[in-house]
Amino acid sequence: MWDKAHNRLIKGLNLPGLFYVNLLQVGFTGNYNEYFGYATDVDAVVYLMLVNDMIHGLYPEAVTIGEDVSGMPTFCISVQDGGVGFDYRLHMAIADKWIELLKKQEEYWKMGDIIHTLSNRRWSEKCVAYAESHDQALVGDKTIAFWLMDKDMYDYMALDQPSTPRIDRGIALHKMIRLITMGLGGEGYLNFMGNEFGHPEWIDFPRADQHLPDGTIIPGNGFSYDKCRRRFDLGDADYLRYRGMQEFDQAIQHLEEAYGFMTSEHQYISRKDEGDRIIVFERGDLVFVFNFHWSNSYFDYRVGCLKPGKYKIVLDSDDPLFGGFSRLNHNAEYFSFEGWYDERPRSFLVYAPSRTAVVYALVNDDDNKELVSEKKEDNKPLVSEITNSDKLLVSETKSDDRPLESIDG
User: Fold this and answer.
1) CATH classification (class only), 267-371
2) Which of 55, 122, 221, 375 has its CA 20 to 30 A from that of 91?
3) 71 falls in which pLDDT band (50, 70, 90)?
4) Number of C-alpha atoms within 13 angstroms, CB side, residue 7?
């Protein structure tokens, strides 16, 4: 629970499986009878309702986040309206989907499958999205960065050494995975410490040998503290490629701070092309273009948009600051033209390099927004600040909006 009034985190209740103690072998399909049948632990549901009612009564500014993988209906509806009362739900399916995809070659990734998992939530139910969880940073599992780059991370992350195809691929996809998760996965974003810059090693707490009842012995680590830490210095080292990955994570946070796209009601997926490996969607006042193809880059690629005017790049995963190859001109201007395309009333033409994610914003000549990778005098990245105006570039328009694709349940 986050206490906004005192700017502090209060330890939450860990109640796994609370709803369905008798349904351990049941898979949920979305049928509401599966949630409101006799097998539901009514006492557990009422208990959570009482907990949320008490927390919000005592601390009106508090935010409660529930962990539920079943898709329980009414989970984020207020107690007064008959719901369980959480403010947010953890979108737990996303991390599992990325691991499932990373075990396959990119040729077998389906754009529609990615979109479905990221957007499969009830309309107006707030979710906290995350690309990977803390479990993947513990001994015995692998982070996204390690799935992508494996042992090359130990030898080829220094900038004074040549890169490898595996490193180039890993850094590019690491950035794309995190941005599309933040862009489509929910109204909040969660990260585990160090994963944002691709921490190369796992966490292993001091432990002894474990003796199981059947006589099996699980070896410990001799109470070693060697892996009981996070190497945050790697993300700050300007001679390592981890620095670029950390800069990108900072940039996407500041992009949200400047544009507030995660809390916008305007959300529209206009393209999920399995042949081109392109995903295009609008979130708030921004247009996101992802090219997941491993080799194909597209010139004059047409993307749909809602609002007319001039668009400019505000975030580019291929920026050299983020370890990219600088294939885009950040001074270019993109003008929309009339005519329906991908069910959008207007469109504009872009260059979409392979394995990149680019975010475009509608700009007015009177507004002065900077590209996320431009720098201040102190060499810190200037991330989409509004320098001459406190308003967003474009006002919210709802007349043509529709929700992200979602399936109840």
Assistant:
1) mainly beta
2) 55
3) confident
4) 0
